[in-house]
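User: Predict the full complex structure for these chains.
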Amino acid sequence: MINVVLGCVLLGIASYIGYQLGNVYRRRQMFFEDIVVFCVLLESEVGLFQNSLPEVFGKPMGRKDWQMILAGCSNELKQNNQISAEALNSALAKLTHLSAGEIDQIGDFILSLGRLDVDEQVSKIKRFRQAFEQRLSGAKTDNKKKGGLYTKMGVIVGVLCLILVI
Amino acid sequence: MLDRFLPKTVYDSISRNLDLSKLTEIRLRSQRPVIVEYGGYYYLSPLGITDDSTKAIVCDSGSLNDLVFKACECSIYSHNEQLKQGFITVSGGCRVGVCGELVTDKGEAKTMKNFSSVNVRFPHQIKNCSLNALRFIADEDGIKNTLIISPPGGGKTTFIRDLAYQLSDKHLCRNVLVVDERNEIAAVVNGVPQLNVGEYTDIISGSSKMFGLESGIRTMKPDVIVLDELANIQDALAVEFCIGAGVRLIATAHAKNLNELKRKAALKNLLDGSVFDRFVVLSEREGAGTLEGIFDQNYNCLYCG
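Assistant: Here is the predicted structure of the two-chain assembly.
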């Protein structure tokens, strides 16, 4: 009986570890999906409606990680009337599923917003969107291969542990 | 409001040492001392106003670029149309005039960059400043087509702002339309006028005078239209359109006196056609908005200041 319980606990732990390892790839995919959607929204907010950045960043959208970045930028704009590079990089650094190059690129994207006329701004957003779409494509492939693999491996290892213990 | 876009050193000095109600302008020029108009022109030092330029705060070009960026709410693109014309209106009614490099594309202005000078002007709503003239402009026969003239900085805009308010507040007409081409009269920000032009007043801001008049007359049924700065032939044509539509008009023009006004080629047709029933002449003789005289359409003096 104790062995069964121990085995189930080990199954649970191994599955959890496998899920968390796979979750990194899921989070990456969701994050880049949210950035791409944000870029599409931004093109119309800037190109058509010419809404200011505080208005755009104040609109809730995306999932947990991207929402955190948006909320941080929105607060910076409200309090300091600008987005500071330090605060932005500090927020992005918390997203451990992003590489240093990706963090730099996202930081450049956000800090480049608002400094150009409409045409140039929309053009720049489009260029960044294309870059993020490429990253999204890579993230989707990684999630499919590695994300699923880690989850399955976690369950398999857990089941093996259960069998061994029983 | 000022702390959101002024450089910190400038804002700190102003907030600690100056009375904002007396401050008219802050002039910031790249690599040169900051100057304020505070009952006269003075340099601005960290300890307040001074006549000594060596003690003055000096702004670099980076600070000016930052100032304009923040005045645009970190969104140059959303204020680009104003920037191309050389100004930004910020919350509170402040008007930030800018000088810099104009970026053009096939001869058309696209935007402005590398700002070298910024002039932050504070509008002062002086209630009742037009009251002395009001009885000559609006009487039992109705509202007269009126042209207010003064040199630059003479108080024309403050005057017509109050005039719009008085016409509305005293119910001298039902609907006042302000065509605020440069967003100076009512200073509308996000749909909210920052300066009071009356409860019965509609405002079209940022559009050309002709477009504002055409759409405003068609849709808002105004009894009187208030315009600022008639300067060129297009403005004169817009006035003729307005008069032709049977709407009363109050407008302004730069001129030191009536003789100088008569020499303005762009307004010749309007003056020769006796479009205006009243001319109000303002000056800075005893401060901006000094009423020098009110004249009828034949330039006879009805009131001498």
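Chain B has a mean pLDDT of 90.
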